[in-house]
Amino acid sequence: MRRDGFTLIELLVAMACAGIVALAAFGAWGNMHGNYVRLQKEYQSSSKQLLQEIVETKSRILKGERGTIENRY
């Protein structure tokens, strides 16, 4: 007897396996996305801080103030 196609049980098993793999993939993606968002916020805050320091240094230079970086820390 020749059998063409799949049985319903075989299709259900395949769909269950695909669901488990998809669940693991979505969980991993969620963790990576959360880390990306956190790192992006940290980058933006450190960039703002660095830009503010550059602006302050530029204004001091234009005013003719003297000083070294070591004096600030």
Summarize the entry for a quick read.
With 73 residues, the chain is an all-alpha fold.
Tags for this model:
mainly alpha, 82% helix, rod-shaped, 73 residues, single chain
What do you see in this structure?
With 73 residues, the protein is mostly helical. The protein has a domain at 15-61. The chain is 82% helix and 0% strand. It is built from two helices and no strands. The longest helix is centred in the middle third of the chain and has 56 residues, at 8-63.
Largest sheet: none
Q: Cα distance, first to last residue?
A: 86 Å
Q: Structural class, judged by helices and strands?
A: mainly alpha
- Assign an overall shape: rod-shaped
Radius of gyration: 29 Å
Would you list the SSEs in sequence order as H and E?
A: HH
Which residues sit in consecutive blocks of at least 5 with pLDDT less than 50?
none
How many helices? The count is 2
The helix fraction, in percent, is over 70%
Number of strands: 0
Estimate the strand proportion: under 5%
Mean pLDDT figure? 85
Topology:
Elements: H1 8-63, H2 69-72
